[in-house]
Each structure stands twice: as C-alpha cells, then as structure tokens.
Amino acid sequence: MHELVAEIRPLWERYVPSEVAPPSVSEIEARLEPLSSDAAIEVMTALAADDLVRSNHVLMNREIAHHTATRIVKCLGPGATWWTNREGNSWDPVTACTFDGVVAGSNGELFAILLQVGED
Fold it and tell me: Which of 2, 15, 26, 39 could cross-link to 35 by cystine, CB 3.0-4.6 Å?
C-alpha cells in the first residue's frame, strides 16, 4: 500500500501543500481495519461508483461496480484477507490528500488494491 501511495503521489501532489507528508508504512498499517469478503465488495462498490469529494458525482455505474468488486473478491478466493481505511462513515487517511478511501485484499499470492483520492 505504501509503495502504491508513493508511486502515484506525483499525480496529485500539486494539489497538496508541500509541508504535508504522506503517512509512513506503520501509520498506514495502523489506519487499516480488517473487512469480511462481503464488506469488501460493498466498500469497493462504493469507492468505484461514488466520488468521495462530490457526493452527487457518479464515477461508475453502481451495478457494474458491484459486479466488478464481486469478481475481484471471487478471484482472490475465500481465504483472502481484506482491509480498508473506512471507519464507520469516515475514512482514516492513507495519503496526504484531503479525501482518500482504500480497500486492499490478498490471498498470499495475489493482491488487489482500490484507492480513490480527491481534493476539494
């Protein structure tokens, strides 16, 4: 997760104040909460379909997002573990952006990460 955040930081860093540093590996790890497979599907669906910054802006058709998230969870299998930075109705940041949401899963061999970032 930390490597992904570092790799894509140049895409949004012009919107983030230069004094705001991205979280460290241990900070990101502390912000991730475990999810069940069903919850991972629901959170991935929401992240793929709904804009975190503009609540009335649709990023993807919800049905397509749900189908895609379901396929990802099935691909990783029943033994996969899933995490998110979502805590209730809020998100614990894993980037230096104002808004971010993540779902990450792994079966020990394959992994999937869905990360949405945004600035207002």
Answer: 39
Confidence (pLDDT) at 38: 97
Residues of the chain below pLDDT 70: 17
Distance CA 5, CA 23 (A): 9
Q: What is the dihedral of CA 94, 95, 98, 102, to 10 degrees?
A: -50
List, in sequence order, the alpha helices (H) in 21-89. Answer: 25-31, 37-49, 62-76
Closest C-alpha among 14, 22, 72 to residue 42: 72
> From the CB of residue 8, how many other CB atoms can be counted at a distance below 10 Å?
13
CA pair distance 56, 117, nearest whole angstrom? 16
Listed residue (103, 91, 95) closest to 2, CA to CA: 95
CB 65 within 8 A of CB 33: no
92-97-99 Cα angle (round to 5): 55
The pair of structure tokens assigned to 2 is 């930390």
